[in-house]
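Subject: sequence -> structure tokens, single chain

Hey, anyone have a minute? Need the predicted structure for the following. Not urgent.
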Amino acid sequence: TGDSIYTTLISESSPELLIPTVTQVQPFSSSLMLMNLSGSKAPIQIRARDPHGDLAGSPYSITLPPYGTIKLESVLTFLSLGSGFYGPLEIRSALGFPIYAFSQVVSPVYTGRGALEAVDKRPLVQKKKGEALTIEWNYDPTHSPRIKEYRIYRAERASRNYVRISTVAATQKRFNLIAAEAGEFILVVKAYDGSVESQPSNEVILSVEPAL
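Reply:
Had a minute. Here:
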């Protein structure tokens, strides 16, 4: 019919999204729509991977204004990837602000259009109340000598109001904790150099079920 076809956006916003595949294979080309759902400026990084899961091209960074929207036509060209490439696209809000994204596939030959919804790419850990878990992280070794400590933060998934729950020495890159209450939570780690904190790490979602 020539009409545009859109899929439903993800039902929950997320700071880490995955588009299952985008393409720059003639005659098709993928565009990317990004929406900042926060009232603050949101630095965003976009990375592509090839069909084998390896990073490809060059990461592309952009900052969206509060509640801002942008559409990147032929999005793979922004990542220095040319004709013939296809693969998944990773989108991360560096400061953890919630974003929406979707990709539309267009062609000058075919009049119909299709769209791919983004999915939440944050890892999910499932535990029962009272069970133990361990989180581990890496940090750029070139910056490690400046780090004084690592700070672990937790927030309820719905509110995203982070509270620092612990601090560990700079020589330690793992933390053990108990799933003390039922619910869904987000865990992040920040490095601290004695004056400022780093941007948050990738998020881990912790889902805790009541103990039987």
